[in-house]
Input
Amino acid sequence: MITIIGYGEKLRELRLEKNLTMDDAAKIVSVARSTYAGYESEFRQPSLEKMTLFAHYYNVSVDYILCLTDQRERKDRNEGFNTKNLLTGELHWDGVPLNEEELKHITEFLKAIEERSKKNQTGKKFG
Output
């Protein structure tokens, strides 16, 4: 017989690994303890935003929490597209390599996005 663990059990396992109470876990995503308890019992379904906050806090993927994968590690969102690619000129668009000037503009654009993102995250709760 195959036992399938649902997202509620995953949330419980992750919470206990960090030695957190239900109150602590509820505070991570700014919900009442009773709401969080509903997540663990699967009486309630957390929103995608709440799942993402849990995944970030526990450093796992949402897919892991939802039991879609056994791999706990989150893949870097920038995997395959990072500063190293920009600096070494390995980046291309649809098979056409980008020149230094194009890479400079892309870098400036990404830095602006990063700054805006940092400003927008002020006040968000991760634990």
